[in-house]
Write a structure and sequence with these properties.
The protein is α+β, with helices and mostly antiparallel strands. The protein has seven helices and three strands, in the order ααααααβββα. The protein has a three-stranded antiparallel sheet.
Length: 210
Amino acid sequence: ETEGKMLKSKPLGFSAGVDALGKLPQEAVGVVAYHVLDWIEGVLDHIDYNYLHQYATSCDGGSNISKSELGNAATALTYIYRDAVAEKCEPDVFSEALRSVEGVNWGSSCIKVLKHVWKERAVSVVKAVKKRKKKNEAFSLGKIVDIAWRTSVTTSCKESPSISRVFISLELKVVNDNGVVSTHRMEVAPREFKELIQSLEDINTALDAV
């Protein structure tokens, strides 16, 4: 069972990204899906849109795929698989979760490929993301000496102009008991960032009252 419903909300342009997926040859869908999961897992440090576009256009039936369409498809997959990780979606209900999204035209072969890739990679990807999250939570073992943040959107990549998803990039510098400073980076949703700010304000108010 899932611990929540996938894709509770769709980012702007998500349907266009799924439409672009439907234009890709089946083997290209699989390669893009594996590539995206490699990035989410941390095996790759970025999504190589040029490589994926070259691969897709080399496949039978993929010669007319534009870089923009490939970028939209990859970004849609990024959103899908990140949500699957967050909701701990079991492979057995992955297809049903995709079909339950309203206003999206999935190709039957597309869902089949995406489920197959998720079934193969779900355990390792979820484990890697969980491990990375625990590492981020270890910040309490030191003193934060500097915080930097910026607002980012998925459209920062020129190959994916039509899908918009806002997130906050945080950079924390932490000093341990030995005086060694380390830098930690993470991405959080705007809601989580607002909750963090509110918690800090509550702590500050409590300290002022002491």
